Amino acid sequence: MVRKVVILARGLGTRMQKEDQSVVLDEQQTQAARKGLKALIPLANGRVFLDYLLSSVADAGYSEACLVVAPEHEELRRRYQEEIPLRRLKITFAVQEKPLGTANAVAAAEEFAGDDDFIMINSDNYYPVAALTGLRELKGAGVALFDQDTMLTRSNIAAERIKAFAVGLVGSDGRLVRILEKPTAEVLSQLRRPLWLSMNCWRFRPSIFEACRRIDLSPRGEYEITDAVQYAIDRLGEEFRTVLVREPVFDMTSRSDIPSMAARLADVPVVL
Q1: Nearest to 255 by CA among 76, 30, 10, 43
Q2: How many angstroms separate the CA atoms of 253 and 251, rounded?
Q3: How do residues 115-155 score in pLDDT, each as one tens digit?
Q4: Residue 124 and residue 39: Cα distance in Å, rounded?
Q5: pTM metric for this prediction
Q6: Are strands 4-8 and 64-69 parallel, antiparallel or unpaired?
Q7: Which of 102, 115, 134 is CA-nearest to residue 229?
Q8: Do 143 and 202 contact (CB within 8 A), yes or no?
Q9: What sequence ranges are listed for the domain Nucleotidyl transferase (predicted)?
Q10: pLDDT, tens digit, for every residue of 215-260?
Q11: Which domains are delineated in the chain?
């Protein structure tokens, strides 16, 4: 079974940096938020948000993690190379020199992945262990998709954001057909229910690196992992199986997420 996970941790954190006078934070949380370091937001018991995510990765059976970071992210390196004892995970780093999108970030981890399958997730989402385990137990490439109704009722993400998320189209054989990015209300109204949302929770084979190299820039000037996936399906003959999950994903995007996330994770044990 797959043992490696790539975690995208280079994000600029612009929404986290935005001041919000309605949110009461302690000094450490405020300092981390000002830097946009979502993964290093302190929550409880000396733990930061990324500690909880990494612990859930280990709970799901993974043993090696690669954090894709910016060249200047020395705080992340210091924490996991010098400050935190690691019992269950081996943590390494890959550098994405410029913020050129998720496919470019994945490409930065090619040396780490080698010839092995791996999963890829965001550093500012807290995924259910069931999704991570489901991907680990697949044979070949795949994606975890999340029920929109569950996300609307049980996650901490605003409904207007959830309704704008990418939707995975699943064939009758359980394989991914296409990811629809930012579908319009008209398109959504025509899709079969339930709607299955993509939260950037993938299992990749090494062929994804060729796809990442071959795609063009998106209209917003980035190399998008969804474009690489579609290239792999259409041009490389890759099949992506789906893990359909009726559990929520929690998000650490803005300062308003910090108090609720701290409360939600307060009793969750962390073992790295």
Answers
A1: 30
A2: 6
A3: 999 999 999 999 999 999 999 999 999 999 999 999 999 99
A4: 6
A5: 0.95
A6: parallel
A7: 102
A8: yes
A9: 35-235
A10: 999 998 999 999 999 999 999 999 999 999 999 999 998 999 989 9
A11: 4-265 (3.90.550.10)
